[in-house]
Amino acid sequence: MFSKRISAALAGATALSLALAACGDGGGSSSSSGDTVTSLSILDYYNNDPDKTLVQQGLDACASQLGITLQRETVPGDTLIQKVLQQASSKTLPDVLMLDNPDVQQIAATGALAPLNEMGLSGDGFAQGIVDAGSYDGKLYGLAPVTNTIALFYNTKILADEGVQPPKTWDELKAAAKKLTKPGRYGMAFNANATYEGSWQFLPPMWTNGGDETDLTSPQVAEALQLWVDLVQSGSASKSVINWTQGDVKDQFVAGKAAMMVNGPWNIPSLNETPQVKWEVVQFPVNKTGQTPIAPLGGEAWTVPLNKEQAKQQKAADFVKCLTSDENEMRWAKSRFTVPTRTALGPEHVKEVPSMKAFSEQVANARSRTGKLGDKWPDAAKVIYQAIQLALTGQATAQDAFKKASGG
Amino acid sequence: MVHAPTLTKAGTSDAPSAEPSRRRRGRRHRGEDLTKILFVLPAAAAMIALFGYPVVKNLLMSLQDYTLKTFFTGAAPFVGLDNYVAVVEHQLFSKAMVNTALFTIGSIVFQFVIGLALALFFNKRFALGGILRSLLLLPWLLPLIVSSATWRSILEQDSGILNRSLAWLGVIDEPVPWLNSPSFALIAVIGVNIWIGIPFNVTLLYSGLKEIPGELYEAGALDGATGWNAFRHITWPNLRAVASVLLMLGVVYTVKVLDVILGMTGGGPANATQTLATQSYERSFIDFKFGQGAALSNILIAISLVFAVLYLRGTRRAVDE
């Protein structure tokens, strides 16, 4: 009898607490579905300093402007998509979500994101490539406040010692790389590994030469691949480029084992930590004079996942609008060595951060990876990096590599 | 299913019991049955949650068009065996199969032979033997991602310590492209996996050797069985049970090795080190074709299962004998 009474009491207590919890839940949602949204949750992958702190400053500024508090979560870059998938299946996506720009269309295609242009944002004044990357089916789903790209870094001391001018054409690049190669040092370093990063690094030669991801078997693309092959086969670049990450490339450059490298401005803070290594940046060389260097746009876009609470979704859109305001773009461009995506800010930015000049020029003509193929870009990117691997390991010629890689 | 026989057995044993005490004993029996079930329940629940559910889910997933979209909309249409057809017809499938076989056989043979040699060596008593044997465990204790990153730098073509040492010793003239050449990469990866697996083999074989009674060797020695003969007629037959467990576990562990390969080559260069496991990973987490990834991992499970069945039949025969 006694135990029965206890269990009854327990059951009662459980029911009560469930009811209370339900009440609490209902109260919470009803209060925030009014017009007082007091906090937003954010997910991004800036999990390392200095970026983590610098991004936080921009987020905080916008939060105080909108009078809200933030719950920010940061995860390592390569786990972001897995995290998003977990949250999507458990319906716990954040209010504001950062995505790498080539992923925006893929995620937008799943129907998870809210169109920003229906909430008072627009792509007017932004670089076209940025709008392309953030759009899917004619709607704007993500906007990047700042962007980056890749260009050619060179070690000023080594080039001066060898009497080499920074190359402007591919022939000059090959000649320079050869002349700069000495025992224990390669003239050139780049990343040709079997990941999307390897494809991204191949885009400057491919696009500059008029190649296109919609037709990878074109002679222009093959010529670009031949450049990578020539650099490796002549011994001007290490055979290990097929395994290097961009981080490895930077390490080689910092250690003086590479005189030039293809890399992005996010390396500038760590390059500045070794002041004895003096460097400059130029745009990626062209194959024939008259061509314009075209590089891929990097950087991350901010998106707003669909939210049942309209007010919260609108607030999140307002927050993204604030992040892409002139003020915040300049803040992040200056502190994080990136390029503002509002084209009007370009000249002022270069004046204030002269080391970003080459990147700023390179961005002016840059394209987004998903601009033409949309959410089919990953398939093309995979063919690109596999073709590079085949050609650099001598399993196919530059002419045949793309055909072989696409299974033809 | 597990509980059903227990219940019926209890029911039948109840029937012939004497009339007066029937109710009391029945109740006690029911109580005992309940206890039995309760004892089994945690294990059964754990099995279903941790083993049954993933296997069933994986089987279902391999029959579905399970993509990025599925996570958001929950829609995953059934596509029959399309995923299996797609993965088997893929241009890398046969290569991945061959690589998986080479990787598994190469790893196991050398792990076992070297492990056995070392176990026999440490079975003799000598100074510092214990310390050396525990040092031998180190590769096993390191996180795999650490070992593979370390080996990546050791095997680096230009500045890696292995090529430098070999050149200094005059063994090679040109640096060996361990991880940069499609013809060497698989060998390098197998080599590192052998290095990782040796401690496990040594440990199990060593304990197997310790189980063999010394009297057998003494008796054998009287009959003239020493050295190779002692190994062949005393050590090996007594070690067979341990060895077969070891080989079976070895196959199951090695077929699915992923981290070592991902950490060292990522399946490259030019797909030279792609195995079923790396392909499955790539389909699921790079291409987001989770259905195809699941199909590949089911093929892997099937292969492991074949070896598990072979092992079970082998041990049953041993018992029968």
Task: Give a verbal description of the structure.
The complex is a heterodimer of chains A (408) and B (321). Helix content of chain A is 47%, strand content 12%. With 408 residues, chain A is α/β, with parallel strands linked by helices. Chain A has 2 domains: 37-147 and 298-364, 3-Layer(aba) Sandwich (D-Maltodextrin-Binding Protein, domain 2); 151-295 and 373-405, D-Maltodextrin-Binding Protein, domain 2, CATH 3.40.190. Chain A is globular. Chain B has 321 residues and is an all-alpha fold. Chain B has 2 domains: 4-61; 82-320, MetI-like (MetI-like fold), CATH 1.10.3720.10. Chain B has helices spanning 4-14, 22-61, 68-73, 82-89, 93-123, 129-135, 138-141, 144-154, 161-168, 182-211, 214-222, 227-255, 259-264, 276-285, 290-320. In chain B, helix 1 (4-14) packs antiparallel against helix 2 (22-61). The longest helix of chain B has 40 residues, at 22-61. At the A-B interface, helix 3, helix 4 and helix 16 of A face helix 3 of B.
Summarize the structure.
Chain A has helices at residues 2-32, 51-66, 80-89, 104-109, 128-134, 156-162, 170-180, 196-208, 219-233, 246-254, 268-271, 310-323, 326-335, 346-352, 357-364, 377-392, 398-405, and strands spanning 39-44, 69-74, 96-100, 135-136, 139-140, 142-143, 146-147, 151-155, 186-189, 258-263, 279-282, 300-303, 339-340.
